[in-house]
Write a structure and sequence with these properties.
about 260 residues; alpha/beta; Cytidine Deaminase, domain 2; about 30% strand
């Protein structure tokens, strides 16, 4: 395995990382899932006091959320062969957001197994996966025999056709008090927007994640559409009822006139 790649940085929001730790603590032995997020490439100029050293490309991978598989071997077999049909069934609309996978193995070494390497290799060659790299998070929690000490070890890897390289992982947390950390969170967290429109990213997140439940195809709030439709149907029914009442009152008046004439 190659040494750590310092040109690649992985950013994981604290609440997402906490969810993975919780899953690692609750899993029986083996668990896996998918990593959803985005990536961007920055051009960094390296300049010293004497001269310009060169240009370096820095890749940033920002994790947004995770999707746990209901059971192991849901999209691969014992040999690590990947079933593309199952992958497409799992991700009907979010395939482009999948940037990696994660594995949880209790009381094992913090290195990728042969089967996991085979899964990674086959994932990179599927038509489903649209990136040339794969982010892999490996969690290997260890429990002492007396269960008094729990150690949650984890490693991050960037996998390409050229091999597997370990990368550093930054846990971005809104609770950090330093100005640099707060700026870092604001840049990396999609829950925060710009100063001019602080809710822009939050609204975008809601529209992307919960569009089908809360928003109609036109982009308006589905609940408001349903309420308006119900109100319109109610008003239409009330108008029909009013016409029926007026017609009934007219019929009653006509009957009263006929009755009075017959009596006279």
């Amino acid at each position: 395995m190659a040494c750590e790649d310092k040109c690649v940085k992985v950013f994981v929001p604290g609440f997402v990382f906490a969810g993975l730790i919780k899953e690692a603590a609750e899993s029986e032995r083996i668990s896996d899932g998918f990593l959803l997020g985005e990536h961007r490439t920055k051009i960094c100029n390296q300049i010293s006091d004497a001269h310009h050293i060169g240009v370096e490309l820095e890749k940033e991978l920002i994790l947004h959320t995770t999707i746990q598989n209901n059971k192991s071997f849901s999209y691969y077999d014992n040999l690590g062969d990947v079933f593309e049909k199952q992958l497409k069934a799992i991700f009907k609309t979010q395939a482009e957001m999948v940037i990696g996978i994660y594995f949880i193995r209790k009381n094992t070494r913090s290195s990728l197994s042969l089967r996991e390497k085979s899964i990674i290799k086959n994932m990179l060659h599927t038509d489903f996966f649209c990136h040339k790299f794969l982010l892999v998070l490996l969690f290997t929690p260890h429990y002492e025999s007396n269960k008094a000490t729990h150690i949650f070890s984890y490693k991050s890897f960037i996998c390409t056709e050229n091999g597997v390289v370990s990368v550093s992982t930054d846990i971005i947390n809104l609770g950090n008090l330093g100005n640099l950390e707060m700026q870092n969170y604001a840049l990396k967290s999609r829950l925060l927007g710009s100063e001019s429109n602080p809710r822009s990213q939050y609204l975008k997140l809601l529209q992307e994640e919960f569009r089908d439940r809360f928003f109609s195809k036109t982009g308006s709030v589905a609940l408001a559409d349903n309420t308006y439709s119900l109100m319109y149907r109610t008003l239409f029914s009330m108008k029909e009822l009013q016409e029926q009442i007026q017609s009934s009152e007219t019929s009653i008046l006509e009957l009263e006139e006929l009755l009075n004439k017959s009596i006279q």
